[in-house]
Amino acid sequence: MQTVFDYQKEGSLPILTSYVLLSNSPRRKQLLEFLAPHIQSVEVDERGIEERFMKEFASDDFLTRAAKTCCEISKAKSDIELLPGHIYISADTIVVSDGQIFNKPQDLMEAETMLRSYFGKSHQVVTSVCLRTDHSLDVFYTLAQIDFVDHYPALEEVIQSYIHEKQPLDKAGAYGIQELDPRFVAGISGDIHTIIGLPVAEVSRRIFAHQSFEK
């Protein structure tokens, strides 16, 4: 199973002096702790971008359309003033299940509907990343698959506990894999950090493989 896909690449990395994470996500911040990045919040019209590019990529299969659209959202988040020597890291995560994109649920009822829909099936999680400097652009996405167990009655209490205690409304697809009850998951293919929200190993490889870093 291929898990890493290039989307757009231009230029080459300059010598870096600083990292900037364009996200307020505590999960992404934690995953990049080893870089001690500066945090900068950027707001974009994610649903507007999604609507536009899902139409533009209509000739692709649904998963590829969704993944490319996810990349466009990440890229839009980095459309800011770029300072020399800084690398700006932006990302977006979506869940694709049954030919639909599952974003963050609007309420607990939608969150429960999403969570229940996974049982007995597989679904995909896409995380796109944009690495941008004033001299370069590298946009890619990673893919993971999660297989849920078949539903059985003893899981009802666990489902309700998750919905009402784990704050599913701030998570794409209504769950965070790191806090999901292990009784739900039959298997995972791909990098678990794709599901958490940032494929750290691939981000690090793309920055450091041909780069000397100065702090």
Automatic annotation (TrEMBL):
Keywords: Cytoplasm, Hydrolase, Nucleotide metabolism
Gene3D superfamilies: 3.90.950.10
Annotated site residues (Important for substrate specificity) in this chain: 27, 93, 178
Cleaved signal peptide residues: none
Phylogenetic classification of the source organism: Bacteria, Bacillati, Bacillota, Bacilli, Lactobacillales
EC number(s) reported in the record: 3.6.1.9
Primary localization class, coarse: cytoplasm
Record function comment: Nucleoside triphosphate pyrophosphatase that hydrolyzes dTTP and UTP. May have a dual role in cell division arrest and in preventing the incorporation of modified nucleotides into cellular nucleic acids.
Organism listed in the record: Streptococcus iners
Homology family: Belongs to the Maf family. YhdE subfamily.
Record-level Gene Ontology MF annotations: nucleoside triphosphate diphosphatase activity
Annotated localization: Cytoplasm
Protein name per the record: dTTP/UTP pyrophosphatase
Domain of life according to the entry: Bacteria
